Amino acid sequence: MKKLLSLSLLALPAALVAAPAANWVSRVTMTPIGGHYMGNPAAPTKLVEYVSYTCSHCAHFVSEASAPLRSDYVKGGKVGVEVRNAVRDKYDLTAALLARCGGPAKFMGNHEALFANQSAWIPQVESYDRDAQKPADQIPALQDIGQKTGLYALMNKRGFTNAQLNACIANPQSMKQVLAMTDEAWTKVKITGTPGFTINGTKVDGSNWATVKAALPPAAR
Q1: What is the dihedral of CA 139, 142, 146, 151, to 10 degrees?
Q2: How far apart are CA 146 and CA 150, in angstroms?
Q3: For residues 104 and 115, what is the distance between their CA atoms, to the nearest angstrom?
Q4: Which residue from 86, 121, 139, 140 puts its CA 20 to 30 A from 43's CA?
């Protein structure tokens, strides 16, 4: 009976055999400005998040919103989510460059790990800011921050060597993109703080998950 059933399925027109639904969460690409977009490129609703890695409100938003955004909005292809930088300081810039290590395939994991561990590395940043003698040149200064504030140690746990992390910070294209997104956030979109959001190009008036959720289409169930 099982053999006959399989043969009968082969005889059906291909259009009548349902293909498995796409899970768009696994599709992460880089956008022209340098952001990281998760989801269906043809999604009718596109959410852009402007974040700062030294922002506690951003960490709270990512903790609260990441799971429902993936399961209820991005997975089925109706909503795409793009993460862009709105850098506020040199520590944020260091983290932003490190988040880009490994390319789009690694970005979302790096991004969420930086926020999930923010309470561990921010105190080290505060201590470093008070006490450390710092290199004068930009790239060595950012690498020094990464090495001495726990950021490299965090990324080591994600499989990156210090040599790879140094290279990520020294990448001129990454620096250009992060600064371009930052300029866009503060001077063009004119976000008033982080996190900031747009949906299909329209700025969202609010910075928490409840506000963003209310502005999105109904969740897919």
Answers
A1: -120
A2: 7
A3: 17
A4: 86
Q: How many CA atoms lie within 13 A of 209 on its CB side?
A: 13
Euclidean distance between CA atoms 1 and 132, whole angstroms = 75
Let me know: does 215 contact 208? Beta carbons within 8 Å.
Answer: no
Question: In which band, very low, low, confident or very high, does the pLDDT at 8 lie, cut at 50, 70 and 90?
Answer: very low
Residue 220 — very low, low, confident or very high, per pLDDT cuts 50/70/90? low
For residues 26 and 11, what is the distance between their CA atoms, to the nearest angstrom?
32
Closest CA to 75 of 30, 18, 22, 35: 22
| One-character DSSP codes across 35-97 | -EEES-TT-SEEEEEEE-TT-HHHHHHHHHHHHHIIIIIITTTSEEEEEEE---SHHHHHHHH
Among the residues of the chain, which ranges form H helices?
2-11, 56-68, 90-99, 104-116, 118-131, 138-148, 151-157, 162-169, 172-183, 209-215
Of residues 209, 41, 161, 58, the one with CA closest to residue 119: 58
The reported pLDDT for the residue numbered 192 is: 95
Report the amino acid identity of residue 114.
L
Burial letters for 101-122: b for 16+ Cβ neighbours within 10 Å, e otherwise? Answer: bbeeebbbebbbbbbebbeebb
Query: Locate tokens 């890695």: which residue?
Result: 53
